Amino acid sequence: MRSERPLRIIHCFRSPIGGIFRHVRDLAEAHARAGHEVGIFCDSTTGGAHEDALFEAVRPHLALGIIRTPIDRAVGLSDVRLLWRSYKEIRRLQPDVLHGHGAKGGALARIIGSALRVNKYRVARLYSPHGGTLHYPRKSLTGAAIFRLERLQERLTDALVFVCDFERQTYFAKIGRPQGRSELVHNGVDDAEFVPVETRPDMADFVFIGMMRDLKGPDLFIAAFERAERLTGRRLSALMIGDGPQQRQYEEMASRMGLGDRLRLLPAMATRTALSLARTVVIPSRAEAMPYLLLEALAARRPVVATRVGGIPEVLGADSPALVEPGDAHALGQLMAEIADDEGWADRTMPDSERIRMRFSASTMAHRIMQLYRELTEEALYADARLRTT
């Protein structure tokens, strides 16, 4: 008979910034409201005031609490101490589900979950890549080594969960078809987010929202903005909102190009607040999986210009005129200039909001993930019962 007891769920990930953190918060809140006990295990050295506020907002939903400890991005000897420390912390919480997000979180969840199983404690082990290691070239030495490790860790995995078809197909191509179970569950946003954000008279023309690092393309945004000004022959305005390791580099770049009075950098803030500050959102990433910003902007009725990477074409459409090739600041600037001079561009180009709501719903995402948790924990209990009778 199927058990509907509340589950004890721990999400493991490294950096509490950006899409992974948003994804985990959405799942945690939805599953806590459904009566489950949820906890978070992540790095203590990344994030700032904005992330601290997000932790405080989600804390009431986390019956198993928030565990933060230093977690290095790179693999090293410190990971041995990290694994032992993490094992003791997680074992104390007696989880039914360990869900790892990103390469480091995935390794922690699967290795610790497997160690618990050795000690006859049944726990479901899941892994969501969220892009991450899949961005490495297959033929590079680093990529080859990482993909080999990913393949080996499949033996410790009960299910892989992909957030978009691009991520799934990239995994198949670079690592191979999973030897075990895999599922595709798209990211989603809440119904409450499908409300247009406020339109203000002092809005900037364009906004970049995200982590200040080259992978996300802030430098491409700056170069494209400068080209858009030249093509339109008039002054435009832009904002860059976010934090990150290369922020000073982009400030200096904008200053060198003489854009300082039209392009302002602001610290990270709530996404809907950021969306209310500009007419058009630009996502100039060099690589992505399925960026939440895209879904949030479309839900808020903000037009989006983006690069043709990751799962973005799955949302906007493969042939959308809102897409340019990654790394092409020239083409991006030309498109931004076109938008600045064409008030009807968004109405002709952006996908229907109701279609986005039906396909990328947070409630559907949380429901499908919980179904998977249930199936895996029941399989674990069944396997445990068989072991006890043999």
TrEMBL record:
Residues 17-192 form the Glycosyltransferase subfamily 4-like N-terminal domain. Keywords: Glycosyltransferase, Transferase. InterPro entries: Glyco_trans_4-like_N. Gene3D superfamilies: Glycogen Phosphorylase B. One of its GO terms (molecular function) is glycosyltransferase activity. It holds the Pfam family Glyco_trans_1_4. This is Glycosyl transferase. It comes from Sinorhizobium alkalisoli.
